[in-house]
Amino acid sequence: MIVEDEKRLALSLAKGLTAEGYAVDVVHDGREGLHRATEGSYDLVILDIMLPGLNGYRVCAALRAAGHEVPILMLTAKDGEYDEADGLDTGADDYLTKPFSYVVLVARIKALLRRRGQGAGASPVLECGGLRIDTAARRVFLDGGEVTLTAKEFSVLEQLAVRAGEVVSKAQILEHVWDFAYDGDPNIVEVYVSTLRRKLDAGLIRTVRGAGYRLEAGR
User: Fold this and answer.
1) Which residue pairs from 201-209 have beta carbons closer than 8 angstroms and sit at least 24 positions apart in sequence?
2) Using one digit for the tens of pLDDT, what is the confidence trace for 95-121?
3) If you ran DSSP here, which 8-state letter would residue 43 be given?
4) CA nearest 159: which of 143, 170, 150?
């Protein structure tokens, strides 16, 4: 179920997820979302925070207080550790800040559904060779050691990791990590990739001349 009051976004997500093979219900109000989640049997709830009726924090907290263990992926236009902590403290399983990549959203959904199928366990994780990305805790480990990244560095790396082994263009990174309205220097992507190379294995991110970047899945 998608609980999102931005109707165009909700319907776009529903259309994409339906094409992925999921059965999707959409509601645009927090109270209705809580009612549906309580009465229905969902595998996962995508829950916006800023909702009419009841906000996402309250919907999530009410579901957890009632004993519902359905995985909850929270969406928000806010960005900051305080908001993320609030969402996770109310019982959300993962957190995604708008604007987000659809590819990342699907990867998070699949990770949460795998986690549910396996029972309680680790947070949704992306792994690529010796690189391990905990998407819920927003922590990165390389060969067992933790690497500290800024929020934007993490988002750039995540965008590459969900397509590990594939070429991701600079335009795709700009679109999904920044937003459609970004009108600054597009070379900002190169700056962040360079920083990631310094913090991680320098050979982990390959430049594909004229095409973009590829996270080396075999390393």
Assistant:
1) 201/130, 201/142, 204/129, 204/131, 205/160, 208/167
2) 888 888 888 899 889 888 887 765 544
3) S
4) 170
Specify the 3-state DSSP secondary structure of 192.
helix
Per the DSSP assignment, residues forming a β-bridge with 27 are 3
Q: Report the DSSP beta bridge partners of residue 139.
A: 134
Angle among Cα 107, 146, 136 to the nearest 5 degrees reads: 30
> Are the CB atoms for 141 and 185 separated by under 8 Å?
no
Helix (DSSP H) and strand (DSSP E) numbers for the chain? 8, 12
Angle between the 7-19 and 102-118 helix axes, to the nearest 10 degrees?
A: 60
Burial 157-192 (b: 16+ CB within 10 A, else e): bbbbbbbbeeebebebbbebbbeeeeeeeeebbeeb
Roughly how many angstroms between the first and final C-alpha of the chain, as a whole number? 37
User: Residue 123 is encoded by which pair of tokens?
Assistant: 């947070």
Whether residue 219 is predicted with pLDDT greater than 80 in this model: the reply is no
- 125: enclosing H helix or E strand: strand 125-128
Compute the CA torsion angle 82, 85, 87, 89 (nearest 10 deg). -140
Q: Which H or E run includes 114? A: helix 102-118
Question: Which helix H or strand E contains 20, and what residues bound it?
Answer: none
pTM: 0.58
